[in-house]
Amino acid sequence: MVIPLLQCLEPRYVVNTDYCRIPDPDPYSADVLKEFRRGKYEPCTKLQPLTWVEYNESSQRYVLSINESAYQWYLKLDLELSVPAPATLKCCYMDVQRVNEQEVELGSCRDFQRSVQLPNDTDSFIVECYARGKLIYTNGHATVPERSELRQRLNRWKQTDERAPSVLMIGIDTVSRLNLKRAMPKTYTYLRAKDWFELSGYNKIGDNTLPNLLALLTGLNLSSITEQCDPHKVAALDRCEFLWQLYRNLGYVTAFGEDDVPINTFNYQLKGFHKSPVDYYMRPYLMAAEQWLDMSEQQDQEQQICLGYEHASEHVYNYALEFTRRYRNDSFFGFFWTNTHSHGSHISRTSAMDNYMTSYLERLVQQDTMEHTIVVLLSDHGMRLGSTRLGSLGWLEERLPFLFIWLPEYLRQSHPEFVQALQLNGHRLSNPYDLHATLKHILVLSGRHNSTSLDGAKDCPNCQSLLLPLSLNRSCADVAIADHWCTCWSYREYTSNSSSSSVDQQMAQLAFNYISNLIAESRLIRNLYGFKPASLAGISKSLVAVPNKADDPRVSIHRLQITTQPRNIVYEVTIRYNSSSKDIFVSDVSRLGSIYK
User: Fold this and answer.
1) Positive or negative CA dihedral for 64, 69, 74, 79?
2) Which residues have C-beta within 8 Å of that of residue 107, sequence separation ≥ 6?
3) What CATH class is the domain 494-591?
4) Which residues contact 425 (CB under 8 A, 6 or more apart)?
5) Do 462 and 456 form a contact (C-beta atoms < 8 A)?
6) H helices of 221-353, where?
7) What is the pLDDT of residues 74-102, one digit of tens each?
8) Which residues pair with 539 in a beta bridge?
9) H or E, element range at 150
10) What whole-number distance in Å separates Cα of residue 310 and Cα of residue 143?
11) For 2, what's the count of Cα atoms within 13 Å in the CB-facing half-sphere?
């Protein structure tokens, strides 16, 4: 029959209102699949680590132990040591000490035999083991030691109220909602089957990781950040009020970890934090690990980067697991971000971690983390560069990262309106500012704030908590999403303009001037985009959006891809054109020519 076939061809939308229509295309389109190759998870080594660490609840100390059975395998790997007689093993550990945001150093090497109880001022350390004077083993361990002043803070708040819900945030860089379904289908299926709430209309608000995470963690855009706490200046970023500071001030224990040190969000071409921003800060350990542990070279686009005996991302995931286990009976705020198994320009990279992530989420369940914790699993944006970005789904995928929220059963029972709101909001336009307001709403639920509400996101007054119903009449303009990043105009309904038309030529020249001025005036953009272009070479693509019902009919939204010289660099620019007033306004620009975070 013809009717079912036509029904199948009807476009689907994750958001479908008079103000916003976000498409829901098939992630397995032919032009995308030709670029996709499912990766296979490979362990970093078949050897068991020679050392392991475990927290002793009685002594409230970590114990570092030697795996003596594994020692024999290390000897077998080296014939010089395996004959004629077993070699005596000598091991020592060195504390990782943070000098500043860009430098760490190791303490003196403390010898130990079989096992040693670690002092509670040791957060992380590097272990070395020798046999007959030869180094046979190097590894690193990060721990979550007990701290008396932190325990006093937690106990003080315990005496004043009921236990507040904890928050765990796990972020995976550069994964769109569509690529989560495509590259990590088991993870996506698990989340849906276990009744996590998917926010399908979650739209990024800026180009790369930095503006999107700053909006989430501070409620501010890049302009406000530059004015209030310019990250290019030493110690300036400490002046910004991050959510983890708000949580810590209200009696939570806090943690932050991010792998791939050279491109860390708050340090890539920036100064980072002068003081450790949280109670447990992973950056010093990961700096030491990348400096002293073996690190695999990336052979192809699908390979996961190894750091010692584990994948680099697993250092972060395992630390998050231990942090939430250690403080499962307290209130915590943990923010953990990984780059190494997803960041880049190839959609296949994160596929090798599908089984791992599914089992990891189940490990959180098994250790009871989920019972009293609101968990947020998210990304910052989709693929921004490479051949996939230039394909039929590339523009949409870049702007729609994935977002899932887990609500503990006790909150579902006590607040059924939250369940209804999250179900409803799954098909409404949302953004990082809304998530910021949601995390503040959770603090209100804790009863630890002296008012019944907290200000939402300062740079998005109309944004709100996702635990409350979002307006059906939301447009991008209402919630601080610039035209350039807005997905509310269906790309399927784009129509081509003549690239030689006078209006297109005028818009292209305006776009070129905008790019030139932006690079000249903004240090941040200059760091990302590089040198100022010399000339406009031409228009490679010209598109116009079909307006939504509520849009002004006099205004059209145009997307141009222009090529500049030298080096034939391609920029994508969004322009708003008023046919009545003839006003032309440039929204923003993306560079599609080189890899940057």
Assistant:
1) positive
2) 94, 95, 96, 97
3) alpha beta
4) 197, 199, 201, 466, 469, 470
5) no
6) 222-229, 243-249, 283-292, 312-326
7) 877 765 656 555 568 999 999 999 999 99
8) 562
9) helix 148-158
10) 16
11) 0
Q: Residues 24-52: pLDDT tens digits?
A: 999 998 888 888 999 999 999 989 999 99
Taking only the tens place, the pLDDT of each residue in 185-208 is 999 999 999 999 999 999 999 999
Is residue 384 within 8 A of residue 398, CB to CB? The reply is: yes
β-partners of residue 111 are 92
Cβ atoms of 464 and 237 closer than 8 Å = no
Q: Are domains 148-481 and 494-591 of this chain identical in fold?
A: no
What is the rounded average pLDDT for all residues in the chain? Answer: 90
Q: DSSP letters of 154-197?
A: HHHHHTTSSPPPEEEEEEETT-BHHHHHHH-HHHHHHHHHTTPE
CATH number of 148-481: 3.40.720.10
Amino acid at 94: M
The b/e string for 456-465 (b: 16+ C-beta within 10 A; e otherwise) is bbbbbeebbb
What span, in angstroms and rounded, lies between the C-alpha atoms of 553 and 353? 46
Q: What separation in angstroms does the CA of 229 have from each of 223, 271, 460?
A: 10, 11, 18
pTM of the model: 0.94
C-alpha distances in angstroms, 534 versus 86, 175, 500, 531, 565? 68, 34, 21, 9, 6
Average pLDDT over residues 368-390: 93
| Percent of the chain predicted with pLDDT > 90 | 70
- Rounded distance between C-alpha atoms, residue 574 and residue 558, angstroms: 6
* 527: its two tokens: 């760091």
Question: In b/e form, how buried is each residue of 391-413, taking b as 16+ CB within 10 angstroms?
Answer: bebbbbbbbbbbbbbbbbeebee
**Alpha-carbon distance 559 to 132, whole Å?**
67
Q: Which two tokens stand for residue 80?
A: 């010089």
Tallying the residues shown for the chain, one arrives at 597
Q: Structural domain boundaries of the chain?
A: 148-481, 494-591
Give the C-alpha separation, 366 to 576, whole Å.
51
Residue-wise pLDDT for 305-357, tens only, equals: 999 999 999 999 999 999 999 999 999 999 999 999 999 878 898 999 999 99
Higher pLDDT, 502 or 137: 137
Q: Which helix (H) or strand (E) holds 365?
A: helix 354-366
